[in-house]
Amino acid sequence: MADQAGARNAAHSPRTAVVIGGNRIPFARSGGAYAYSSNKDMLIAALDGLVARFGLQGERIGEVAAGAVLKHSRDFNLTREAVLGSALSPETPAYDLQQACATGLETVVGLSNKIKLGQIDSGIAGGVDSASDAPIAVSEGLRRVLLDLARAKTTQQKIKALGTLRPKDLSPNAPTTGEPRTGLSMGEHQALTTAAWEITREAQDELAYRSHHNLAAAYDRGFFSDLMTPYRGLTKDANLRADTSLEKLATLKPVFGKGLDTPATMTAGNSTPLTDGAAVVLLGSEDYARANNLPMLATIVDAEAAAVDFVTGEEGLLMAPVHAMPRLLQRNGLTFDDFDFFEIHEAFAGTVLSSLAAWEDPDYCKRVLGLDGALGSIDRAKLNVNGSSLAAGHPFAATGGRIVASLAKTLSERGGRGLISVCAAGGQGVVAILEAK
Amino acid sequence: MADNYLDLVNTPLPGKFAKALGLPRPSVLRRYTPGEPIAAKPVLVAGSGAGAEALADVLLSWDVEVRRHVLPGEKLSAAVVVLDRAVSPADLAAPMLELGQAARVLVPGGRVVAVFRSSADTTDPSVAAARQGIDGAIRSVAHELRGGATANGIILRTGATTTDATTLGTLRFFLSGRSAYVDGQFLEVSGTPAESVAGLAAATTAVGEGVPDQPLAGKTAVVTGAARGIGAKIAEILARDGARVVAVDVPAAGEQLAQVANRVGGTALQLDITAPDAAARILEHVGGRFGTLDIVVHNAGITRDKLLANMDASRWDSVIAVNIASQLRMNEQFLASPVLSTTGRIISLASTSGIAGNRGQSNYAASKAGVIGMVRAQAASFDGAGRTINAVAPGFIETDMTAKIPPLTRQVARRLSSLQQGGLPVDVAEAIAFLASDAAAGINGQVLRVCGQNLVGA
């Protein structure tokens, strides 16, 4: 028995999954350049740009996984439909995934695991979101009437169904960013956390400023020329303010946390605006990359997800990555000092700073994370070196693809090891390790 | 961009009016479709001697019906005038007069091709007079032909024969719809270097016997400025001919570039060709993905037109930087790299503006004339090697750029050529695809005008 199991394990010993490259469309501010683009349009554009970059026309990819957070009912089978609309072979299977803002990173994790297991040789992971083209649901009352109407067989039945319609039923349910269980928006949730960790306005503005500065510098040195394909006339992330300054950021009025006892510190400048965009990453086994003469930028080493109880207020909504991180590091026998680059997604500057503060706090780490002491601190010079969500924008499900592709390219250029942390609505978070190939 | 007048005169009634009024009557040109026969009707081979006999035999082997004299009541697809043995101006009379008879019975889109030797390769005044005389005669015939027919010439340099691989490849190009907008032009042909013989058999066999419809199969081509216009068409035609295309353009044009790459099954490479590392990135991409770089098409170019009196430094500098300085820098790096094939082809876009000059285009003309200078100097260094470098000089081509010319000026510019119309991007692309093929191995340092024998730059 033992021998048989051993043989089976040897036959299926995990392979290495590598990041070959990525592509995204520039991120647009909601209501901007992509106001009339659907999730499907944008995902097709991102896929087609990837296909063009790597010459994958007509090729059957092992699997494509992507998703959207704000999703229409018409976006049934969104990813498969996007594959059919792209230049990939129509024989490429695809599936949708939804884990709020962690969607993109989770697709990378899922497909790289399949590659490691030998189930597929290549995969395209990614995500798309449109805050502009958000779905609007009809009211519960109107929905019931419409369903009754569809079922009605006679004219009389139809008239009767329509007769139950009330004027208030005609107002639609607009989408909100509020958490279903608390009714609080993500920004208000983070404001609670920001206040709890006593993160200053200055520190948040400083982080936002660096995000813009780093992103602008990355554009200037052509870093994105093989990571991005323009779309609808947009050639750069629309949210980027290359000329912003700490003085300018300091003039902005707070928008979140105004009802708290502490001073409100979160502004439109140190929070990410609603954004439209799509990003995809090409993954493969080493053999696939070699057989097709494709580059290998980085290895996907490991990943970990976590969730926290934010409903009772025991933990902040966006603090789940803080919990996932020690579990990931421990499993891999690593500490923060073993990393050369950190990609911490900023839904808000306060999120990053709260996370860093938590990892640096021995009391919290002992009490909440069950560690012996502080997890450690992160060298700020290694953090989000090519800009991040504050400057680039944050089309929810597209963020993971942006981060993985950018980090993989950074690692291929400069070597070393990188750590990714993405927070997500619903009190969830995903963290992952990439290594230079 | 549509040439409405051309469409109009090719309908019955307006066509009659145009004829009665003596207005220009441009024809719809015969353009290449893969698999088309080289000549549907018989082809006249005029001229005498071993060269003419040998050429007639090759045409027969291509399944072409060959005539040595014009037969009464018979239409001709083409007339090939072989004058490689002309030693005195008196030798031209018989073949030229025979050609005159053939010109009357040429089908629409017919072809006249003269094959003769270069006056530069003789010191005998009489021989030179004969050879140069053919040049003038054929240019005149090109002006006279109607119905979309063209007249061009193949000039044999020292040692080249009428049946060398390159001679035959060039003859095929001139006879086919690939040369639709090439008129009144001459290509000098040298004996083919041994390194380039591979694939030539295929290039010179008849359709159906070999693979002449995919003459670039297995080759990797880089096309700059490929996102739109002529560049996009070049990418398409090279891909149609079998090449793997790396489409290059600036990151800002990435969306259209991706569409082009996906249409032709190639790869998109977003980069600014004026960046110092442009060639290195192209070599890295091509070397890593495909191993060898076989064809480079320097198509990317810009215009910043202004009268010289009003020209500022930024307009001058940007045109020079994009149109010529970038090519010089990239070629240097390509040639130093083992990735560039030993039979590599470099084809650069010049312009008739660079030949004749053009008001308000001193900067553009400097860059395009510069291209011609570069090509000739580089060609000399390639002499005897397997590599070639040539330029294609488009005349008035219907593109987004020429669509911006004021309407009346545009109409006049179109009618100024022997074909009385503007060319299409595909016409430029076909000429480039020909120069990129193995069949053009003996063509080096040439500037081929694709201009419909426009009066400008003649």
How would you describe this structure in keywords?
A: 437 residues, alpha+beta, ten-stranded mixed sheet, two-stranded antiparallel sheet, B: 458 residues, alpha/beta, six-stranded parallel sheet, 13 strands, 40% helix
Write the layout of secondary structure elements.
The complex is a heterodimer of chains A (437) and B (458).
Chain A: H1 2-11, E1 17-24, E2 28-29, H2 39-54, E3 63-66, H3 78-85, E4 94-96, H4 103-117, E5 122-129, H5 140-151, H6 155-163, H7 186-196, H8 201-220, H9 246-250, E6 254-256, E7 266-267, E8 275-285, H10 286-291, E9 298-307, H11 320-332, E10 341-344, H12 349-360, H13 362-367, H14 389-392, H15 399-414, E11 417-424, E12 428-436
Parallel strand pairs in A: 3-4, 3-5, 10-11
Antiparallel strand pairs in A: 1-8, 1-9, 2-8, 5-8, 6-7, 9-12, 11-12
Helix pairs in contact in A: 2-3, 4-15, 5-6, 7-12
Chain B: H1 4-9, H2 12-20, E1 43-46, H3 50-61, E2 66-67, E3 76-82, H4 93-104, E4 106-117, H5 125-144, E5 150-156, H6 165-175, E6 186-189, H7 200-204, E7 220-224, H8 229-240, E8 244-249, H9 254-264, E9 267-270, H10 278-290, E10 293-298, H11 313-335, E11 340-349, H12 352-356, H13 362-382, E12 388-394, H14 407-415, H15 425-436, E13 447-450
Parallel strand pairs in B: 1-2, 1-3, 3-4, 4-5, 5-6, 7-8, 7-10, 8-9, 10-11, 11-12, 12-13
